[in-house]
Amino acid sequence: MNLPFIDLKSQFEAIEPEVRRRMDAVLAHGQFIMGPEVAEMERALADFVGDGRTCISCASGTEALLIAMMALGIGPGDEVITTPFTFVATGEMIALLGAVPVFVDVRLEDANIDERLIEAAITERTKAIIPVSLYGQPSDMVAIEAVAGRHGITVIEDAAQSFGAEQGGRKSCGLSRIGTTSFFPSKPIGCYGDGGAIFTDDGDLAQAMREIRVHGQSQRYVHTRIGVGGRMDTLQCAVILAKLTRFEAELEARREISERYLEGLAGLDPALRLIEVGDDRKSVWGQFTVRVSNREALVESLAAEGIPTAVHYPVPLNEQPAYLSFAKGGPTPNARELARTVMSLPMSADLSMQDQGRVIATIKRTLDQ
């Protein structure tokens, strides 16, 4: 029997009455753009993150990054420091604004940006730092904020994979001046299409972001700044509200599943190495990713047993054709090594012990050969 990589069907079955109730309410009132569920979801998410954050919903996690940088006034000639080992949206939005992505290498242990290398990459043109909380775990945001603070630079946490994670008891999306996240269906909390959100404790930035997401309007047909069509649909907000009823339980389930993976796959080093989680951090395990020396053979073995895998990510951004001519940064050997060896395994809150046991047993059998 083939396993789903992410089991959205079982999740839907568990919350179907609430999803249908929420969506039916939107269909009944007909406010499909900026309906009451939008503000309700924003309040609920802001309360979840805490630390006095305001939530501004938007059309996607990609749009969240764009709006955040537009609110900061980032544009041509500016530099933004980020990781080369991430989904392309992070670098893409920097480039779209005419700014220059400056790629800093990552740690092999957790695939997140190496905070020790950031300060050397700062120049007089640096306007922001965008660490990505990869695989569900924040980068060392405390250390990154300290570096940024010394230079008066804003940090934007790209928390597309880590909503619900923590560092030092503080929630991801509340660890820096701005945090962004994604509600793509495969994320720790996802809608049934595209969606995203931005979090900040800066009132002026929050107002700017609200205006930017509706074509720069401060009031109807009064455009005080350049903006985008970046609203999140009311129906998608209704889905997130339904999923929030189960979110805390899902986070606990993800952590239990990750512990079973960690225990079951321990001791296979050097053929398979596990991603480490910082002592001061809680991951939401947006992906359960390992490093394997012979990835192709293991992918084939798992596929033969109906077990899907994925590679997040096969080519670092600084080696992508679109970025070769203008991106900056030093050598990134760790990003290249991770691109060659990482492999993500089935992971969702509804992954059964039996199915997970199949995954672990197949990996062990393959690596023991």
Structure description:
This protein is 40% helix and 16% strand. It has 369 residues and is an alpha/beta fold. Helix 2 packs parallel to helix 8. The model has no long low-confidence stretch (mean pLDDT 97). An eight-stranded mixed sheet has the order 1-9-8-5-4-2-3-15, with helices on both faces. A three-stranded antiparallel sheet has the order 7-6-13, with no helix packed on it. It is built from eleven helices and 16 strands. The two termini are 23 Å apart. It folds into two domains: 222 residues, Type I PLP-dependent aspartate aminotransferase-like (Major domain) (Aspartate Aminotransferase, domain 2, 3-Layer(aba) Sandwich), CATH 3.40.640.10; 122 residues, Aspartate Aminotransferase, domain 1 (Alpha-Beta Complex), CATH 3.90.1150.
Which structural class best describes the helix and strand composition? alpha/beta
- The coarse silhouette is globular
User: At CATH's second level, what is the architecture of the largest domain?
Assistant: 3-Layer(aba) Sandwich
| Total domain count | 2
Order of helices and strands: HHEHEHEHEHEEEEEHEEHEEEHEHEH
Low-confidence stretches: none
Q: Would you identify the CATH H-level superfamily of the largest domain?
A: Type I PLP-dependent aspartate aminotransferase-like (Major domain)
Strand order of the largest sheet: 1-9-8-5-4-2-3-15
CATH class bucket of the largest domain: Alpha Beta
Termini distance? 23 Å
Helix percentage:
25-40%
Instruction: Please state roughly what percent of the residues sit in beta strands, choosing from under 5%, 5-15%, 15-25%, 25-35%, 35-45% or over 45%.
Output: 15-25%
The tally of strands reads 16
Major sheet size, sense and barrel closure: 8 strands, mixed
Could you tell me the mean pLDDT?
97
- Fill in the CATH topology of the largest domain: Aspartate Aminotransferase, domain 2
The tally of helices reads: 11
Gyration radius, rounded: 20 Å
